[in-house]
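1st attempt posting a full record on here, be nice pls
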Amino acid sequence: MKLTVIHSAILISLLPSASVFAAGLDRSGQSISAFLQPGNYAEAGITVLDAEVKSDELKVDDMAKSYYFPSAAIKVQATDKISLGLIYDQPYGAEAEYDAASPIFGNGVEGTSVDVKTENLTALIGYQPNENWNFYAGPVYQTVEAEIKLRGLAYGGNAKLGTYNIKVEQEEAFGWLAGFAYSIPEIALKAAVTYRSEIEHNAKSKESTLLPVPSLSALTSSVDATTPQSVNFDFQTGIAKDTLAFANVRWVHWSQFAVKPTLLGNISSIPAPHVRQNLIDYSDDQWSVNAGLGHKFNNKWSGTAAVGYDSGAGNPVTTLGPTEGYWSVGLGGQYSPAENYFIQAGVKYFWLGDATAQTGGNPVGDFEDNHAIGYGMKIGYRF
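the predicted structure (as tokens):
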């Protein structure tokens, strides 16, 4: 049951919106599926997330902001045995803002807010000794920047961390990835394992508060943060005429992730010197699974249906992202006007896991019965 190029194209991704609301700060899922396509290939896509994260207990209507992120990739089969690729994505990030009127997370003028953005540029070189095996590796260039404000009684009000601000300037660092793929074209089987290294950042930051203590009011220093290592396992196989089953399993090492700004640590250690509050941290590693079916209806139309699960990265969680994992269902469609290009779109609904928000190890309240909807669109071209 050997599938042609246009048949196999329905499995370029599970859905354009496959990983838009994952544990920790995970966003894109860091797929390299474009690099594993046959021949020369390029794609560009955009994903949008509209989430509702609320707490009846804390009278928080919705602290999650809608956001979007683009992605792009190009792969060139330089020779029969050598392939080259370049992938752009935004692997980690967060955007949220609490209502200024909330006494728990606001001060009447501003609400607690977070804006974290990363960008990745991954270069790949692959070696294919035969039609079954593909071994690949390459460097990863990553930038990170952030701006966070803490307001309200959850952070001790104006007497402690309730006037805290931090702006992390854009900083560059490098990592790497390596992996291998095995395929049997006759049955449309493809399996790939990809490891990405952690990336260590040391970014310049400006911290400030309105505390009437000169030594605790402002600080220009640096923040150490390490984006986590991860492993992706991707699998697909033909199960019937024009029908494929697919799955992705992802592990992310969040349990050792922590952001520890100096000024915030100094303030939070008063009057308990042995306690220094982290700005963001997680207690567990993330495991996620997405699986489903893809079917080609005719020469122009294909579709996918998928279900997903994300374990979250521990509970209680930071107030800057008060959910723990999710369950999801998604549908995607692909239209191919010609054999060498296609347009793909998808939608995914997320049931977000209930979580207890905390600051400095102290529970603040519960966030329950939340959800999100992700939309995605992608254009692919073979040349």
